UniProtKB/TrEMBL annotation:
<keyword id="KW-0653">Protein transport</keyword>
<dbReference type="InterPro" id="IPR011990">
    <property type="entry name" value="TPR-like_helical_dom_sf"/>
</dbReference>
<dbReference type="GO" id="GO:0005774">
    <property type="term" value="C:vacuolar membrane"/>
</dbReference>
<protein>
    <recommendedName>
        <fullName>Alpha-soluble NSF attachment protein</fullName>
    </recommendedName>
</protein>
<dbReference type="GO" id="GO:0019905">
    <property type="term" value="F:syntaxin binding"/>
</dbReference>
<dbReference type="GO" id="GO:0005483">
    <property type="term" value="F:soluble NSF attachment protein activity"/>
</dbReference>
<dbReference type="GO" id="GO:0035494">
    <property type="term" value="P:SNARE complex disassembly"/>
</dbReference>
<keyword id="KW-0813">Transport</keyword>
<dbReference type="GO" id="GO:0031201">
    <property type="term" value="C:SNARE complex"/>
</dbReference>
<comment type="similarity">
    <text>Belongs to the SNAP family.</text>
</comment>
<dbReference type="GO" id="GO:0006886">
    <property type="term" value="P:intracellular protein transport"/>
</dbReference>
<dbReference type="InterPro" id="IPR000744">
    <property type="entry name" value="NSF_attach"/>
</dbReference>
<dbReference type="Pfam" id="PF14938">
    <property type="entry name" value="SNAP"/>
</dbReference>
Length: 299
C-alpha cells in the first residue's frame, strides 16, 4: 500500500488487481497469459496515476507493465518499449536519476528490432533530461554520443550533427579537447557532403580554437588544420570568424599581444563573441602566445 492510495483509488485498485493476477495460480492458464493480463492492468493503473499527477506511482506501474510484457510476449517489443519510455518520462518529473535505466531499456528494445531512429530519439531525450537536471556529465555525453551514432545509422544527418555538436561542445567545456576536435572533425567532413554548410563553418571555428587551446597541439599543427578546413569552405576565410583566426595566427607568429587583442576586438565589433569562445581564446592566448606550457606535437 502507498500513502498516496487515497489520492487515486482507481489506480490503486487496478494495481492491486495486477498484483493479485500475478500471485494467482490457474491450473489451466499459462504464466505468460497472467503476466500479459497483469501488464495491461499495470498500464491502466499507470495512466490513472499519471492523470492524478502521482508521478512516482505512475512510473513504477509503467515499469511493472514493461517488465511483464517482456516476460509474456518477448516478440512484442513495441508495447514494452512504450511502457519503458512512459516510465522514464514520469520518473523524470520526480526522480530524474531513476529515469536513466528505463530510457536505456527502451532504446535497447528499439535496437533489438533495428529501429535506429527510435533508439536515437530515446538517447536524445535521455541526454536532454540529464542535462536539464544537471546529472552526471558522463551519462549526458554517453547519451548524446549514442544518439549521434544511431541517427547516423538511420541516415538522419541533421540530427546526427546536432548531437555531435553537443558532444563536441561539452567535451570542450570539460577541456577534453581531443574528443571535442574529433567530434568537430566529423561534423566538418559531413558538412562537405551535402549537410549544413553553416554548421560546418561553426565547427571549423570551434575545432581550430580547441586546437589552439590544447596542450597537445602545436601552433603549426593547429594552423595546418585551419588551412585544410579553410579550403573546404570557399567563403570561410572572408567571414568574421575566418578573419579572427587569421589575425590570431599572425599575432602568434609575431608574438604580438596587441595584434591578438586587436583581432578579437575587431571580431567582437562585427559580431559579439560568446563566453564559450572567449574562454577558448583566453586558454589559447596563455598557451600559444604567452608560452604558458611546452607544446607537444603528437603527430
Amino acid at each position: 500500500m502507498s500513502e498516496n492510495d487515497d489520492l487515486c483509488p482507481e489506480g490503486s485498485k487496478l494495481r492491486a488487481e495486477a498484483d493479485k493476477k500475478l500471485k494467482s495460480f490457474n491450473l489451466f492458464g499459462s504464466a505468460s497469459k497472467r503476466q500479459g493480463e497483469a501488464a495491461d492492468l499495470y498500464a491502466r493503473a499507470a495512466a490513472k496515476f499519471r492523470v492524478a499527477r502521482l508521478w512516482e506511482e505512475a512510473a513504477e506501474a509503467y515499469l511493472l507493465a514493461a517488465k511483464n510484457l517482456e516476460k509474456s510476449s518477448p516478440d512484442d517489443w513495441v508495447d514494452a518499449r512504450k511502457n519503458y519510455e512512459e516510465c522514464a518520462k514520469c520518473f523524470a518529473k520526480c526522480k530524474p536519476e531513476d529515469a536513466i535505466e528505463p530510457y536505456r531499456a527502451a532504446a535497447a528494445l528499439s535496437l533489438k528490432e533495428n529501429s535506429f531512429s527510435m533508439a536515437a530519439h530515446l538517447y536524445k531525450s535521455l541526454g536532454e533530461m540529464c542535462e536539464q537536471e544537471e546529472l552526471e556529465m558522463d551519462t549526458i555525453l554517453e547519451a548524446y554520443t549514442k544518439a549521434a551514432t544511431y541517427f547516423e545509422a538511420a541516415d538522419a544527418v541533421k540530427n546526427q550533427l546536432d548531437m555531435l555538436m553537443k558532444v563536441a561542445f561539452m567535451n570542450a567545456r570539460l577541456e577534453n579537447y581531443n574528443a571535442a576536435i574529433e567530434a568537430y572533425d566529423q561534423i566538418i567532413r559531413a558538412s562537405t557532403k551535402g549537410a549544413s554548410k553553416s554548421t560546418g563553418e561553426i565547427a571549423v571555428f570551434n575545432c581550430v580554437l580547441c586546437s589552439l587551446a590544447s596542450k597537445e597541439y602545436t601552433t603549426e599543427k593547429a594552423e595546418s588544420g585551419f588551412e585544410s578546413y579553410k579550403d573546404m569552405f570557399d567563403g570561410f576565410a572572408r567571414s568574421t570568424n575566418g578573419k579572427l583566426l587569421e589575425g590570431i595566427f599572425d599575432a602568434i607568429r609575431q608574438s604580438d599581444v596587441d595584434k591578438w587583442e586587436g583581432a578579437i576586438k575587431e571580431a567582437d565589433r562585427r559580431s559579439t563573441i560568446s563566453s564559450f569562445h572567449r574562454s577558448l581564446l583566453s586558454q589559447a592566448q596563455q598557451l600559444k602566445l604567452e608560452g604558458g606550457t611546452d607544446e607537444v606535437d603528437l603527430m
